[in-house]
Amino acid sequence: MPETPPLPNVTADDIRRAADFLAPLIIDTPMIQAPSLSGLLGCSLHLKLENLQYTSSFKVRGAAVAMAQLTEEQKQRGIITMSAGNHAQAVAFRAREAGLKATIIMPKQTPFAKVERTRSHGAEIILAGRSVNEGEATVKAYQAEHGSTLIHPYNDVHVISGQGTIGLEMLTAVPDLDVLVVPIGGGGLMSGISIMAKEMRPDITIIGVQAELYPTMAQTIRGDKIICGGETLAEGIAIKSPGTLTHPIIAKHVDDIVLVSEQHLEWAVGTLVEEQRIIAEGAGAAGIAAIYARPDLFAGKRVGVVICGGNIDTRLLGSILNRNMMSDGRLVRARIDISDEPGMLAGISDAIGQCGGNIVEIYHQRMFYDVPAKLAKVDAVIDTRGTAHAKEIVNALKERGFSVSIIDEQSS
């Protein structure tokens, strides 16, 4: 185990003072029970809906507290930050409210929706690098030229204090929680919440969540070489270098860090919509993904989860919902070989309809070289009640003499 750096000077009292300061500046987001998800996951879930916060993310808390520390000279020179979107929007939003010039460095592949929402708050946007950390060089060059003050996304004691107010609100609303589940990117959110939670409830279990592709905080705490990379649904927590301030706090207060796959994240995003009508981005749904991935850690317990952001591209959300439906058999694509003669499509439609299936899309292929001249292929996308219903439809088609196979996007 590596030697842990000294703890930064952030206390529960700092967080309480931040809460008093923030009270008129933020939305008092609800802490709700999630009965449907609780039944699916085998625990009593309570969700802190920071996706309903200003700019649809918790980040406005830390940004507001950090910006309140600026001197008049710093305000005149403006502020700068690097962010994949949520911190960017928060800084831009608060800067506009305070009449400050804000410059935001965002990764080149940041979803369009996040870039445009940030720009809509009046900030100057510079796209550079493929991650938040790669944008640091651009930040330093800009600071050298313009003298702007950096509002760091997570490696700042004032940001940590602001984010910690979420923990205060959660345990005030539901004092008897057994477990808190919090996503970890750079660690600002987890650091603040863990400081507050351990002061209020020393016996509470605190579980962090990271994407498998970016397990950098877990690696740092273990003293392992940092190995990360790839395209993740949870780009908001895809951090290559955890905070030097946040690392020792998390090492002290956090009981475990669960790593979640892209499949776990997709399931969590889709299931939040379907079961609770809650829209969350990948990072925002990471806590639910952790419970889905490791139900043994949470079985029968009262669990508080931070839904930390809701800034997801609508096309991506639609794709995830469809993919989730395909994974559990509620949306299937059947490939049907037919003879090219009148009545075949009617027979297919009748067989599916008689079983109660609904044809969403249908493709009739007869003009391609891999299809014999007297034959055709039909690809039907069918809305079903689930896997058993899909099998019933396939059997009904086969009973009518059709050759049928279920295909996925990779095999098509």
Would you give an account of this structure?
The protein is of the alpha/beta class and 412 residues long. It has three domains: 12-59 and 158-323, Rossmann fold (3-Layer(aba) Sandwich), CATH 3.40.50; 61-150, 3-Layer(aba) Sandwich (Rossmann fold); 328-407, Alpha-Beta Plaits, CATH 3.30.70.260. It has 16 helices and 14 strands. Helix 6 (112-120) links the parallel strand 4 (102-106) and strand 5. The chain is elongated and about 80 Å long.
- The CATH level-2 architecture of the largest domain is identified as 3-Layer(aba) Sandwich
Low-confidence stretches: none
> Secondary-structure element sequence?
HEHEHHEHEHEHEHEHEHHEHHEHEHEEHE
Spatial strand arrangement across the major sheet: 1-2-10-7-8-9
The helix count comes to 16
CATH structural fold name of the largest domain: Rossmann fold
**Helix-strand makeup class:** alpha/beta
Q: Give the overall shape.
A: elongated
Through-space gap between termini: 49 Å
Determine Rg (CA atoms, Å): 25 Å
Helix content: 40-55%
Largest sheet: 6 strands, mixed
What proportion of the residues form beta strands (DSSP E)?
15-25%
